[in-house]
Specification:
This protein has 229 residues and is mainly β. It contains no helices and 20 strands. A five-stranded antiparallel beta sheet has the order 1-2-3-4-5, with no helix packed on it.
């Protein structure tokens, strides 16, 4: 988040900045590259400093059909605001992803930490086996996709997955880690997988094997060793 004496600002992955004035509640999107501003309904209250802001689609000329989404960092809460005519303004929404078991902590609430927009949908890693999907119709709808297992280094003890969008395609990036008592965690490698939604059912998707087509110019995934990073 960017902060000055008056305004609060949250940078989106697309480079747009959500700007909010706590004294006037003035709220808008601003492009540092073009200085373009898109006015938004007033955000009624301050959101946490380290919240993450994402746009469901990239703003383009004449495109007002996207949603601004803000994920709070500690609570299971998102704020969203549609930009189309007739939007209801900012809405606070509490979601429920169930509980996950964390070593040393027991069961804790599942949380969204980061959203990645691709073709109007918002994706997040729910577990190493599942991708969460957030859509607006216009209310938020949460669904889950099963992700097939991928090849992993034999010495791997944990995996750190995340999502990225590139040229309209969604990729799953997984860092393969090894840790042992008294030894620093080491990175064994990193797999980058293009997610294939055309071939999926309603609850699954396909990934492309990172060991195939590494040398090809049109490969769907790549495999990197620590020396390549």
């Amino acid at each position: 988040m960017l902060r000055n004496r008056q305004r609060r600002r949250w940078v989106t992955p697309d480079g747009w900045v959500l700007s909010w004035d706590p004294s006037t509640l003035s709220t808008f999107l601003w492009s540092p590259q073009t200085s373009e501003k898109i006015p938004l309904p007033s955000l009624p209250q301050e959101i946490p400093m380290y919240s993450a802001c994402t746009l469901s689609n990239k703003p383009t000329a004449g495109n007002t059909g996207f949603t601004v989404v803000v994920v709070e960092p500690e609570d299971t809460v998102i704020w969203y605001c549609g930009t189309a005519a007739g939007s209801a303004g900012w809405v606070r929404y509490e979601y429920d992803l169930g509980s996950v078991m964390v070593s040393g902590l027991g069961a804790i609430k599942g949380r969204i930490t980061r959203l990645t927009a691709c073709r109007g949908r918002l994706y997040f890693v729910q577990s190493i086996h599942e991708l969460g999907v957030l859509e607006f119709a216009p209310q938020p709808v949460l669904t889950c996709l099963s992700v097939p297992a991928v090849k992993r280094p034999a010495a791997m003890t944990s995996m750190a997955p995340s999502c990225i969008e590139l040229d309209g395609e969604l990729y799953l990036v997984s860092a393969f880690l090894h840790s042992a008592l008294g030894v620093d965690t080491s990175v064994l490698g990193c797999g980058v997988y293009r997610m294939d939604f055309a071939a999926r059912s309603k609850s699954t998707c396909e990934v492309h094997d990172p060991f195939i087509g590494i040398a090809g110019t049109n490969c769907n995934a790549i495999w990197m060793l620590p020396t390549d990073m």
